[in-house]
Design brief:
It is built from 7 helices and 10 strands. By secondary structure, the chain is of the alpha/beta class. The strands form 2 sheets. Strands 6-7-8-3-9-10 form a 6-stranded mixed sheet, sandwiched between helices. Helix 3 crosses helix 4.
């Protein structure tokens, strides 16, 4: 970095964050950052606070102590939500008779309020087409969502999140219920988003072996912060402290 060049602002910053659900403390005194270009994996046992941290980063909850910043701004003042894409844990809304097509669902990602001219438009926009091509789902654009596999539905949700070309993509257990082949395609897609589009990724996952291979940085959380740093630096001892029992790490190699 040259003299006088400004240090890039963290996309997400947790500063001494504590949050409780009634008498139950979910996360306590947690501090870490997500920097531009990072692929950060949040890992930990069930009930450790991973999803709570994601909710705090999305502004769905507010810390009772400390603060959360998005793109350098206090979350209460942050307005540029189009810069953030979100992919939920499961495509649970897509029931057997869900009537929308792939193209229609991805188009929902463009919604920014009532548009009186929308009824005069036909087909999908260039942004929707680009997003569907990115996740290799363009050929399915007229297929009913209920006809897709779970893995295809998850790729669809990523496409919806990518319509506005967000700088930051947050995902909550996105491979839950996805078969091994689908998971491989999914992580290949995330690598491409980071490498080719420069998208920063914050991912909650239980699949420790996979994410330690895929992620550039890891946040190990079990109410408090156990480890934050390079995925290459995580040790069996760190994971044993995280889960409370002896762990021998086996990393799954996705090619």
């Amino acid at each position: 970095m040259s003299i006088g060049e400004k240090t890039p602002t963290s996309l997400v910053a947790f500063e001494d964050v504590t949050f409780s659900y009634g008498p139950t403390t979910a996360v306590e005194h947690v501090s870490f950052t997500v920097e531009p270009g990072d692929f950060v994996a949040l890992i930990g046992p069930n009930g450790s606070g991973k999803t709570t941290l994601l909710k705090l980063a999305l502004g769905l909850e507010r810390p009772q102590q400390g603060r959360v910043l998005l793109f350098g701004q206090e979350i209460d003042q942050f307005k540029e939500w189009h810069r953030i894409g979100y992919v939920p844990q499961q495509a649970s809304a897509f029931k057997v008779r869900f009537p929308a097509t792939v193209g229609e669902v991805v188009s929902y990602g463009e919604y920014r309020g009532f548009d009186p001219l929308a009824i005069f438009r036909t087909g999908v926009s260039s942004a929707v087409e680009r997003a569907l091509h990115t996740v290799d789902m363009w050929e399915y654009r007229q297929r009913l969502v209920s006809e897709l596999s779970t893995g295809q539905q998850q790729r669809l949700l990523i496409a919806r999140a990518l319509v506005h070309q967000p700088a930051l993509l947050m995902l909550d257990e996105p491979t839950a219920g996805v078969d091994v082949a689908g998971q491989d395609q999914f992580y290949t897609l995330l690598r491409q988003l980071c490498r080719d589009l420069g998208t920063t990724v914050l991912l909650v996952s239980h699949d420790v072996g996979v994410v330690l291979h895929e992620a550039t940085k890891v946040v190990c959380i079990n109410r408090t912060l156990v480890f934050h740093g390079s995925a290459q630096e995580v040790t069996d001892a760190d994971l044993s402290r995280l889960y409370g029992f002896s762990v021998d790490l086996i990393i799954h190699r996705h090619q």
